[in-house]
Amino acid sequence: MSGEEAPTQQQQQQQQQPEQVNKPDESAPAATSDAPGESGAAAAEEKPLSCRALVLTGFGGYDKVRLQVKTLERPRLKAGEVLVRVKACGLNFAELLGRQGLYELLPAPPVTMGMEGSGVVEAVGEGVKDRKVGDRVIAMSRSGMWQELVIVPANYTFPMPEQMSFEEGAAIPVNYITAYMMLFEMANVRPSKSVLVHMAAGGVGIAVTQLCQTVPDVTVFGTASASKHETIAQGGVTHPIDYRTKDYVEEIRKISPKGVDIVLDPLGGSDTQKGFNLLKPLGTLIVFGVANCMTGQKKNLLAMAKTWYNQLSLNMLKLMQANKAVCGFHLGYITDEQLISRAMVTLLELYRQGKIKPRIDSCYHFEEVTDAMKRMHERQNIGKVILLPEPKKEEDKPDAEPGEIVEKTEAAVSEKKEEAKEEVKAEKD
Predict the structure, then answer these.
(1) pLDDT tens for residues 125-171?
(2) In the chain, how many domains are there?
(3) 266-279 burial, b for 16+ CB within 10 Å, e for fewer?
(4) Would 64 be classed as within a structural domain?
(5) Residues 199 and 131 in one domain
(6) Do 178 and 321 belong together in one domain?
(7) What are phi and psi of 365, to 5 degrees?
(8) At which of 172, 190, 205 does a domain end?
(9) What domain range includes position 233?
(10) Which residue from 24, 145, 241, 326 could staple onto 117, CB 3.0 to 4.6 Å apart?
(11) E strands of 224-328, at which residues?
């Protein structure tokens, strides 16, 4: 099993909605300076700002990510910074790992997560010449994007094409830069090559498929559950493979006995070894994740140990004899802003030309972050899951009284506990 849509072990456990808490003394959404920008936030300084944010309060399950409302001091921008009012944020696998304490680049809780978003510039700091108030931009940060207001370096913002929605803007950076750099900077994909991508229905998988279509005659093998095959085939996957019912290695060998030229592996563990063995001579394996480590909503030490034990082990002599390349990719460790900027400029031009277009699976308001994380964790999504900072409208909320909701929730939890007991009993039998 590749792990792309492996059912979680804790689907029957209670899933708590995020708790909304007023935090008047919370700090500002990003680092500030005592030196205000000369062209900075005059309008924003007229009165204190209220900012909704999703805060990781500790490592663990879904309930550790909570909606908080912060009252901010007047933002004072450093030179080269901009203040962005966020309209949409991207949810990535890294945030699921971060919630479990498995993403090493995330600061210790309490911390606001989120690496990408889109919105409107509300103020600019000193020295910012190519951004102005009112610009629609895509923004990136190592963390902190899951909030209504964020301060970021201007060179980590990118003007959005006119026809691009905020949801699409938030879906571009992490997934498409990852796919672009792996395919074109590392693997050097060329006409008539073949590519295997796992989790082909996810954000990176769809980005890889679309980018492969910009190169003539590239064959794409993609693993996904059978229910997603029609969608990913329409999107450009040449050979969809149901990893749940079939051995993807055998299926690929039937179609291409010599294997494939490029393997993109977000799984880790034994799947990395399988990917290496599937490579043709002069082929390239790129490892960019360890999804096999995540089997439940909380950290699973057994799954981590199993993944580590089964990881690919090579010595240089064996690598030379195999005539294959093994690479690792982690966007979070790329600190060269020119590499990021160059990739984004190329991707936005491809969007303008209609050659790539993010597929939005679903949108959730901040109040619904538990549902959003659960959808991605259980591999139900086809495309990108988006978070919306704006409050959920009253007409979209349940009509039931609070007592009724609690009562129904308690009944559902009891029912799920009983189901879990039955499953455990069945396993023992």
Answers:
(1) 999 999 999 999 999 999 999 999 999 999 999 999 999 999 999 99
(2) 2
(3) bbbbbbbbbbbebb
(4) yes
(5) no
(6) yes
(7) -70, 160
(8) 172
(9) 174-351
(10) 145
(11) 239-241, 260-265, 279-287, 325-328
